[in-house]
Specification:
Layout (H helix, E strand, L loop, with lengths): L7 H7 L5 H15 L14 E5 L5 H8 L3 E6 L2 H14 L3 E5 L11 E6 L10 H13 L1 E12 L2 H4 L9 E6 L2 E7 L12 E12 L2 E12 L3 H11 L2 E7 L14 E8 L1
Parallel strand pairs: 1-2, 1-4, 2-3, 4-5
Antiparallel strand pairs: 5-11, 6-7, 7-8, 8-9, 10-11
């Protein structure tokens, strides 16, 4: 039996509640706001090269490519890499796809913008892994470049209510309907390891046909303080902004639902 990450089409469908083009517009706006100046004092040029890490179907990288940027998508899962490449070819956009580990990659060049979306850093299970990841990112950022990392909001796990990772939603696209439950109420966060085994159930219906994808996905919860500590330990990066959504939502605002950190070379 394969899991949700071995079925890239189903995974992309599950995440289709996200509106990627406006998110990419915000990412580019943040670049204009937070990049540079360069070491020689001049302003950084507009973003030309983008790297998406733990990219999965690479929806953000593909959108950057549609906008004329030179885009690269990196993921460890072979099925995801193949799907990203096929989707880019179908859409008529140029996308380089690399199968590699987000903690140990060496592409031999630097990028104006590096992004990690959809809380993919939850797959980093230890502080050592997170530090290794950040060091790889720092080594791949061009002067004046930015790293934008989107994580879940700490309120999800540290709020006043009893912790629960149960989340359910429904999406429809192209005549296909999917009911997704990512985490069950009984999936508890281990207070020592800060890891939860999220049970995933996705039922996909098209006409009279239906199928169900089931999986158990380990999830590592990271606090804002732990992220700051990992940044200091890794060296080479400095946090310059933190947002609670794709826009000008403060991280501590009631409507904040993500923890998005903007970093640049230090």
């Amino acid at each position: 039996m394969t899991g949700i990450y071995d079925d890239p089409w189903a995974y992309e469908l599950a995440c289709s509640f996200r509106d990627v083009p406006p998110e990419v517009s915000v990412l580019l706006a943040w670049c204009a706001r937070h990049r540079g100046p360069l070491p020689d004092g001049t302003d950084a040029a507009p973003v030309r090269t983008v790297l998406e890490l733990a990219a999965g179907p690479a929806e953000h990288a593909r959108e950057f490519a549609r906008r004329g940027r030179t885009a690269t998508a990196l993921d460890l899962n072979a099925a995801m890499c193949a799907y990203a490449a096929e989707s880019a070819a179908r859409d008529g956009v140029e996308l380089e796809v690399v199968r590699d580990d987000m903690t140990a990659f060496d592409l031999g060049r630097r990028f104006d913008l590096v992004v990690t979306m959809l809380d993919s850093t939850s797959h980093l299970m230890t502080l050592d892994a997170f530090v290794a990841h950040l060091r790889c990112v720092a080594a791949h950022l061009a002067p004046g470049g930015l790293y934008v990392v989107e994580m879940s909001h700490p309120r999800d796990r540290l709020g006043d209510d009893e912790p629960s990772v149960g989340t359910a939603w429904t999406v429809e696209r192209g005549g296909v309907r999917a009911s997704v439950r990512w985490g069950e109420p009984g999936d508890r966060l281990d207070p020592v390891t800060q890891i939860a085994d999220d049970r995933v159930t996705m039922t996909i219906t098209e006409g009279d046909a239906a199928r169900t994808v089931r999986d158990v996905v380990p999830y590592r919860f990271w606090t804002a303080g732990e992220l700051d500590a990992a940044i200091r330990l890794a060296g080479g990066l400095t946090a310059v902004a933190r947002y609670g959504d794709f826009g000008d939502v403060a991280i501590d605002a009631p409507e904040a639902w993500r923890m998005i950190t903007v970093l640049r070379p230090s």
